[in-house]
């Protein structure tokens, strides 16, 4: 039997609040909770288990994120922490919180369109999918609200973003692409 | 997994094939970092290389785990994905030859990427329904990323193929050069037979119709002509005979771990 959870241990709702104060290392206006990568927080005896689903397989921020979670929880006096990685089901931008979407747009990053994951049907034939389709697109320019938008590149400054331009204000902007 | 013959040795071989494909192609693509024709393309290539290396970590991580189980090693003695990537020699690699072919010009790099992505996309979609949950999970994750890779490589192949006379000629040359390596993606051996019988991985040949449909559509739009099929150039996925290019790639990729064993930073 593992040692029981100490009576003074903070409750789970409180821990979620603390995690919601940890910024994403690459897009610091949203929290790790907003990003939707924290899938579960649970006490196992006297040990706190945090389950994280990575965004992109090769995202260099993943190691930093683990460290940031540990640092934040240790600062609250929790010293037995285990961070588990869970890859199934895979992360999707549909897991971004509403608060996160609003903050992204205020920051100048167009939030992902909802429920437009390009691989919703994993058994489907790829033959019907053409260049440029299925990847979703920004609803409007995050700076001026313009609707005439052009995609510059499907890949942007981080793995999770694409690069677009507004035809009204002519400003380039990042789009948090659907996945 | 269901009862039946032990699939572990075949599974290990299969995982090395998946992980070595993404590792070697990922390294090749990363060679463009800082010198692609335009900034957006440089960033796109670096992002794709990063996805492929990330996928490698999952495939080779699982390969190391399965190898440890086969050898009955205790946790501390087991190899890691890094050991497999940096401490094996050329003949132990199981990537298809297509992945190790040098980059050539930008057009050839994107043609190689398209020919691989079109297969990778079919393969991962099938693997997402694998009888082995660990394989299915990695495939479902990777498939999302590869959708973007295929989207981009298709678009670029069409843009350059149906572009200027110069870009068209270069893309046709690239296709003629690379197409003989395509056949190896669909070869099968007893490893594939065992895994497809167990529902762990598809029979490679079964992917060919969907692959050919993608090629016909994209290359047709790119105004490029698919060369007459020649005998498949194989030897990579079974490690029988890699090209001389793989050794050169490894000297660069593995140099640090060979010179300073165990170095970390």
Characterize the structure shown.
The complex is a heterodimer of chains A (179) and B (265). In chain A, 21% of the residues lie in helices and 20% in strands. Chain A has 179 residues and is of the alpha/beta class. Chain A folds into two domains: 12-85, Fe-S cluster assembly (FSCA) (GMP Synthetase, Chain A, domain 3, 2-Layer Sandwich); 93-120 and 134-176, no CATH class. In chain A, strand 2, helix 3 and strand 3 form a beta-alpha-beta unit. Chain A is elongated and about 60 Å long. By secondary structure, chain B is an all-alpha fold. Chain B has a single domain, classed as Ferritin, core subunit, four-helix bundle (Ferritin). Chain B has helices spanning 8-30, 39-71, 81-86, 97-100, 106-127, 133-161, 165-178, 190-197, 208-221, 244-259. In chain B, helix 1 (8-30) packs antiparallel against helix 2 (39-71), helix 1 (8-30) crosses helix 8 (190-197) and helix 2 (39-71) runs antiparallel to helix 6 (133-161). Chain B starts with 7 loop residues before the first helix and ends in a 6-residue tail after the last helix. The chains are: A alpha/beta (179), B mainly alpha (265). At the A-B interface, loops of A face helix 2, helix 5, helix 6 and helix 9 of B.
